Amino acid sequence: MVPISGFVIKISSRCNLNCSYCYEYNMGDDSWKSMPKTMSIETMSKVMDRIKEHSLKHDFNNISISLHGGEPLLVGIDKFKDYISVIKSNLDGYRYTIGMQTNATLIDQEFLNYFEENEIYVGLSYDGPPKVNDLNRYYHNGKGSSKDVEVALELLKDSKIFSGILTVIDVNTNPIDTWHYLTQFEPPIIDFLLPHANWDNPPLSHGENDYVKYGDWMISIFDDWFNGYKSHIRIRFFEEILYRLFGQKGTLESLGTEEVGLITISSNGAYEQVDTMKSVYPGAQNIGLNINTNDLDEVLLQKGIKDRQTGKNGLCTKCQNCKVVNICGGGYYPHRYSKILEFDNPSVYCEDLYKLITHIEDAVILNTQKSQIKQ
Ligand code: SF4
Q: Is residue 161 part of a domain?
């Protein structure tokens, strides 16, 4: 078992957007309603105590903090600074990174200056051209978010602390248009995400005989990128497949069979499995432990956490016998769920993942053969 060294800390439980596919607010889990709107400074101090206690016990010194929400910047700049000062004073002498995932609508020059001065890495969520983004990412009054996000993108474009864009795939859009559009902002990384779905709530665009729409959508972008279009921009999902094809370890928990050392801590101090479990069924993220009464070793013993640390042996029979299992790893844990077999299934995106991974494998083999012929 690996210790937990990645911490998603929810400093805000509310959001100024109301995205159609949001697992926090629009997939049945209403736990946010009873959460403190923002994490208290006392809770943040206690979180840091637990992190230090765990790192001391397991002798590791490399900590990743990711500030999340809801929308983390809703806390306002003064409280944001207070959190950072608590985190930094506690991690003095450690190696650490502080990042944030934001919808970017509240980033202004003051926030940006502070992020740059304090090396806080900013990842933002944006789904592509305005007309695509605004289909799903809008304010509570229905107004699309793209105009405000683009203001932030212009501010971030040349900044060292811009860490990348998360884009949820909409297979009804043109993949190349989306990819080319996003590249104009020169993000260091783009992460294309499969929408949250499982066997009881399959992806909307999976037709009866069409289980590879998502695979095909990603293959179009992979071919363009692999053949040289803006290939200096990293596409995390493809990179992580390539690492594993070459026998290296990856870091993305939605692929591969590596042990997952990541936990979410909600604004009231409760430990949660990965927060996207909320897309599975209401309360699926809960493990019944919190920072006041439980240390992180107790978290490691919880079933949902242990399952994600058992590698290939924890997968269903179909996945264990699959030829791409070391790369795919059964896909993202929440995407395996069904009421009958719980997580003992392949990903609901199995066919898409298989098609994409084997396509990338073939492209790499072909590329290697071409370079050997040239020599
Ligand atoms: S491609 Fe399908 S069967 Fe193979 S490991 Fe992935 S989810 Fe499992």
A: yes
